[in-house]
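Reminder: ligand-aware prediction takes two inputs, not one.
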Amino acid sequence: MNLPPGPRAPAAWQTVAWMTRPGAFLRSVHRRFGDPVTIRTYWTDGPMVLFSAPDAVREVFRLDPAIAPAGQSWEFLRPFAGPHSILLLDGEEHLRERRLMQTPFHGERMRAFTPMVAELARRELSTWSGRVTALERMRELTLEIVLRVVFGARGEQEATQLRGAVEDTLDGVRSMPRMLAMALVQRDLGPRSPWGRFRVAVERFDALLIDLVARRQAEQQDDLGRAPSDEAGSRGGDRPEGDSMLALLLEQRDEDGNPPTDRHLRDQLVALLVGGHDSSAASLAWAFERLARHPFVQARLRERDPAYLDAVVKEVLRVRPALTIAPRRLLEPVRIAGRPLPAGAHVAACLWLALRREDLWPEASAFRPERWLEGPPPNPLSWIPFGGGVRRCAGAPFAEMEMREVLRAAGDLALRPVRPDAERARRSMLVLTPHRGAEVLVG
Ligand code: HEM
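Here is what comes back for the chain with protoporphyrin IX containing FE:
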């Protein structure tokens, strides 16, 4: 294949670098080969060409999904994600699913979730003192947010059951090598084998989710069956209208007016869990890792200026993006940035490189929220932590709101790093996390 240049090291070596030192690897290939660059890892079944210049990134995001599907890149997740998953679909089916799933993320509906997120964040941050590993705590918090806000779990019993089942299942998918090995083998060698354990965990999780969906459906029927005069005060005590994303998803109707099936709702909930849990936890962990090393930024956050808070969120997502690439697989030859690329290759908008190019971001590696408040606004095609085009992160407004609420709740804490050196990035499943888990001293 005639592809742009890239490292000649064996795929095994490039895979190890991609997994263990992703930041250093991307920086080094960009420095040596420029843009675009071709890398070879076991992550994809063919070479992958990375683009980071805004015009090329735009072309990647505009590729016709019939020629360059994105769903195939998530194929290894199928046993967990399910056949209706937005993550796996492409073309018309994907767009239809996306329209349905975006209901909870619009304006007022999304804003209605803010108080619950703020309360969960306040509760978590109020327990911080001494030495804290922010990544662990943010994984717990963002899971709690998914359970309460997305799934609409109520009471301790419902939440505890779901929490246990999610953790068992994610244990199976968090390790990429294990997931790839399981996807290759997919043979049940007994309940103690990795695949067997994973299958049992998914079955248990599915049973709980389907049960939850049935309970919420029954409650909604109940509410509909009540006389309008009963409405006030009779909605299940503390249960406000549209109190969870699941409640809103239950209202979806397809073109023929049919509601979604239980399995379909289950796949939507799992897509929101997979999309929203680890990526938000990693981004928040990076926020604490950066803040602990920037007391001046902490001091300005304490002034509680909403514009500055927003700038901090944007700058964390820029300087430490949780996802490195938005990949597409070429089914036919295409031309990007004037370069012919053959079918079989993978192409990706490299979020990590685009967000750190010196020609687009002065002092690109510096954590400087002020850049968002001074000077001209950046080119939207260079700030792409949520990807772009028809696959842009469906939960982006929610993710930014979640980060703002957590950082607002952390406003009065004094944070210091456990060690002065910045933590480097390592890969955990699909996201980049601080290699020590963002260790901070509080107080
Ligand atoms: C800071 C946190 C987050 C980051 C950095 C992030 C980033 C991304 C990226 C880069 C993509 C792929 C875009 C592409 O291929 O072009 C994506 C997809 C997606 N994200 Fe997020 N995300 C975050 C939080 C969330 C949250 C909180 C949710 C839901 C509650 C969510 C749901 C999704 C879904 C459903 C998709 C698939 C969209 C599709 O295929 O059409 N994400 N996200």
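The radius of gyration is 22 Å. The first strand starts at residue 37 and ends at 39. We will return to this case in the review session.
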